[in-house]
Write a structure and sequence with these properties.
CATH architecture: Sandwich
CATH superfamily: Jelly Rolls
Largest sheet: 10 strands, mixed
CATH class: Mainly Beta
Number of helices: 2
Structural class: mainly beta
Helix content: under 10%
Order of helices and strands: EEEEHEEEEEEEEEEEEEEEEEEEHE
Radius of gyration: 19 Å
Shape: globular
Strand content: over 45%
Length: 290
């Protein structure tokens, strides 16, 4: 008998003014307790309603982890790696890289950006970027259940995105009253973030509402688990994130994740000395377009 996932903890992150200035509201979905969220370091829900042409979001460095950007609405990025609504980009910062998410014209956008830890053995990996446009996202529409799978394997779908950490990301919509049961590895840390509506979670039908984050129960056993989901009378849309915890200590400082405190000054020094290349200049074999 498969292990049934239940809703263990509900959080309602508060939206606050964002660092990009007027028209930017940011909601910290994940980021308060890494021991709980491992390997998820941080997840931000950025809602932007830009009214002018003043550029914001210039070049900046990262190292020691991966950024996973799901663009829910709008356009983002440069010409080579420009994202449209529904696109995903996974950037492995690894040993250190510079990138820019410049926004220089009026428009609305909504961005879910995840910081995902790298295993210690892969923290110095060569920087890499993977682009998965909406048109190529594996999808399934069946019995009022609509799944777009961006990473991992779920509901008979498999994403081409390559992962250092076993990772599932799915944008799921349920029509009014629709139900599904999804299979996830029982030892993966998993949560739902509700974009619209209300969803009943688990065998007891615990309610998870719009703008809430629901952490699921987890087992130490490496076996399948079942996640039962049912939408209320207005339907629901949510994003599912699941990944295998690493159980490794990290040091977080600014844009860098490291093994020890001694690594942080070295990373800043390498950035100042221009040793971190821009993500658009990494070798072609490290720029994957699915």
């Amino acid at each position: 008998m498969a292990i049934e996932r239940t809703l263990q903890k509900i959080e309602r992150p508060v939206a606050e003014p964002g660092f990009l200035g007027a028209g930017h509201v940011a909601r910290p979905v994940v980021g308060s307790n890494y021991k709980q969220s491992d390997p998820f370091i941080m997840l931000m829900d950025d809602m932007i309603d830009k009214k002018d042409h003043i550029p914001v979001g210039g070049p900046h460095p990262h190292a020691g982890f991966e950024t996973v950007t799901l663009l829910l609405e709008g356009e983002l990025g440069d010409d080579k790696h420009r994202m449209q609504s529904g696109d995903l980009q996974l950037m492995t910062a690894g040993s250190g890289v510079v990138h820019a998410e410049i926004i220089d014209k009026p428009g609305k956008m909504r961005i879910l950006q995840l910081w995902l830890n790298l295993p210690q053995k892969d923290r110095q990996a060569q920087p890499r970027v993977q682009d998965l446009p909406l048109a190529h996202v594996p999808s399934k529409d069946e019995n009022g259940v609509h799944i777009k799978l961006y990473s991992g394997s779920l509901a008979g779908l498999s994403s081409p995105v390559q992962n250092y950490v076993p990772l599932t990301i799915a944008d799921i919509s349920l029509d009014a009253g629709a139900s599904t049961v999804l299979s996830l590895p029982a030892n993966h840390n998993a949560f739902l973030y509700v974009l619209n509506g209300t969803v009943q979670v688990g065998p007891d039908g615990a309610l998870l509402q719009q703008d809430q984050t629901g952490w699921l129960s987890k087992s130490d056993e490496d076996v399948p688990s079942e996640l039962a989901l049912t939408a209320d009378e207005k339907g629901a849309r949510f994003v599912l994130y699941a990944a295998k915890p690493l159980g490794e200590r990290i040091v977080s400082h600014g844009p860098f994740i490291a093994d020890s405190q001694d690594d942080i000054p070295r990373l800043y020094r390498e950035y100042r000395q221009g040793k971190m290349q821009h993500i658009t200049t990494v070798p072609e074999e490290q720029q994957l377009k699915w």
